[in-house]
């Protein structure tokens, strides 16, 4: 007898009602290869201690605009990019590309292009509401961190895939995927003992030309990376307490 959820006349092998077989979902495709999960199961006490220790490290992360010119070895950036690349991604397309700029002339050209646009943003494009939101941070169009920091990492999002023969294919959830990778990059840089600043110049299409990236890639975020300057400062801010960012089960309206 046919299962009601399988088109009648289907010759596909039938799995259980709750869990279709691979061939039912992906007719004609080769079976995927699996391997055992490598996983360290820790005791509840250790789990809690590690969760807390990680928070304690992350809560010291701050965004400063004041970078030292001290050098940072390329290998440190490479490890952080490898950490970023452990992020999950839509259909495992890994649609990210981290372009790390250290050449002073190239950094200067990036700064020049960014500041030209940011000048327009701050003097003309910004609404009053936006301006009032940024007043507490005191940001402006001068981006000295783009030339002070030893590295400027520009993260590109592969909007779609591009084969060598020029044909294209779809990618999935690229903004979510690349954003997750950027989050891991921030954690990796902080863990390594460096600092970075997430900068989103807008527009920033010119970065594709400056850095020679193909048409299927779009810049998403710019991150100077280095040590903080000795006199680095940060705005006095507080983070939302747990009660404001977390809820378990039903909220106020969910009776
Ligand atoms: N992209 C601009 C403006 C800016 C916008 C927000 I929202 C910020 O949190 C900070 C800055 C800039 O980078 O200066």
Walkthrough of the structure:
This protein is of the alpha+beta class and 255 residues long. The protein has a domain at 64-231: NADH Oxidase. It is built from 9 helices and 6 strands. It has a 4-stranded antiparallel sheet. Strand 3 and strand 4 form a beta hairpin. The chain is globular, with a radius of gyration of 23 Å. The two termini are 43 Å apart. The structure holds 3-iodo-tyrosine. The site of 3-iodo-tyrosine has 8 residues, from helix 4.
Layout of strands and helices, then pairs:
Blueprint: H1 22-25, H2 44-58, H3 74-84, E1 96-101, H4 104-125, H5 128-134, H6 145-148, E2 151-158, E3 160-162, E4 168-170, H7 174-192, E5 195-196, H8 206-210, E6 217-226, H9 242-245
Helix pairs in contact: 3-7
The chain binds 3-iodo-tyrosine.
Helix proportion? 25-40%
The SSE order reads: HHHEHHHEEEHEHEH
> Helical element count?
9
Distance between the termini: 43 Å
Question: Which regions have little confidence, pLDDT < 50, spanning 5+ residues?
Answer: 6-10
Average pLDDT rating:
93
Name of the CATH class of the domain at 64-231: Alpha Beta
CATH superfamily of the domain at 64-231: NADH Oxidase
Bound molecules: 3-iodo-tyrosine
What CATH architecture of the domain at 64-231 would you give? 3-Layer(aba) Sandwich
Largest β sheet strand count, sense and barrel closure: 4 strands, antiparallel
Structure class: alpha+beta
How many DSSP-defined strands? 6
Hey, roughly how much beta strand do the residues contain?
5-15%
**Global Rg:** 23 Å
| Main β-sheet, spatial strand arrangement | 1-2-6-5
CATH topology of the domain at 64-231: NADH Oxidase
Organism: Deinococcus aerophilus
Domain Nitroreductase: 59-227
Region (Disordered): 1-38
Protein name: Oxidoreductase
């Amino acid at each position: 007898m046919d299962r009601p959820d399988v088109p009648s006349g289907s010759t596909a092998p039938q799995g259980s009602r709750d869990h279709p077989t691979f061939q039912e979902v992906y007719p004609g495709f080769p079976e995927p290869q699996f391997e055992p999960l490598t996983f360290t199961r820790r005791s509840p006490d250790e789990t809690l201690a590690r969760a807390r220790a990680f928070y304690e490290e992350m809560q010291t992360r701050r965004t400063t605009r004041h970078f030292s010119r001290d050098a940072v070895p390329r290998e440190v950036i490479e490890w952080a990019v490898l950490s970023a690349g452990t992020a999950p991604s839509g259909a495992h397309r890994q649609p990210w590309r981290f372009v790390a700029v250290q050449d002073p002339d190239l950094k200067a050209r990036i700064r020049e292009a960014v500041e030209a646009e940011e000048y327009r943003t701050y003097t003309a494009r910004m609404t009053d509401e936006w301006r009032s939101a940024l007043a507490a941070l005191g940001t402006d169009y001068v981006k000295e961190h783009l030339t002070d920091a030893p590295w400027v990492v520009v993260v590109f999002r592969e909007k779609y895939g591009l084969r060598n023969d020029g044909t294209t294919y779809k990618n999935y959830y690229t903004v979510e995927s690349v954003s997750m990778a950027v989050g891991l990059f921030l954690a990796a840089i902080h863990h390594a003992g460096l600092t970075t600043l997430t900068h989103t110049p807008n527009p920033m299409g010119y970065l594709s030309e400056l850095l020679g990236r193909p048409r299927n890639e779009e810049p998403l975020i710019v991150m100077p990376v280095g040590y903080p300057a000795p006199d680095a400062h940060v705005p006095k801010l507080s983070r939302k307490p747990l009660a404001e960012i977390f809820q378990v089960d039903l909220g106020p309206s969910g009776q």
